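PROTEIN–LIGAND DATA SHEET

This sheet pairs a single protein chain with one bound small molecule, zinc ion, given as SMILES. Inputs appear in the order they were entered. The predicted three-dimensional arrangement of chain and ligand is reported afterwards as a C-alpha cell string under its own label.
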Amino acid sequence: MVLGKANEMKSHLAMKCKGYVPKNVQLNFLRKIDNECESSKTSSISIKSNRADKALTRWFVCSGIPFVAADSLYFKDFTKSLNSGYNLSKRTAFATTHLDGELANITLKIEKKLAKAKNLTL
Ligand SMILES: [Zn+2]
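PREDICTION REPORTED AS:
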C-alpha cells in the first residue's frame, strides 16, 4: 500500500500491486496511463518531443544509465545541439511519467499478444 498522488496510485495499481488488483482493473489503469501519455501531445512539435522522450527513456533503461544524467548540463547541451526546439524533461519526469507510460505501453502489447496466442504451456 502506498500513500501519494493520484497518478502515483494509478501506476502503483497498474504495475506494482500485482496479485492484489483484479486483472481487468490493472489493464484499465494501464490503458489510462498509456492514453494519458499519448493524448498529452497534440502539436507536431509535441509529438516529436514525445517520440524523443520515449526514445530517451528506452536508452536510459536499456543502457542502465541513471535518470540523473538527464539533469547534466552537458547532456542538456547535447540534446539542444540535436534540436533546439526540444525541451529535455527533468529526471523526475523520466523516472515517473515517461517510464510508467513506456511500461504501460509494453505491458499492453504483451497482453494483446498473449490474448491471441494459442496452445500456451507453463
Ligand atoms: Zn499496493
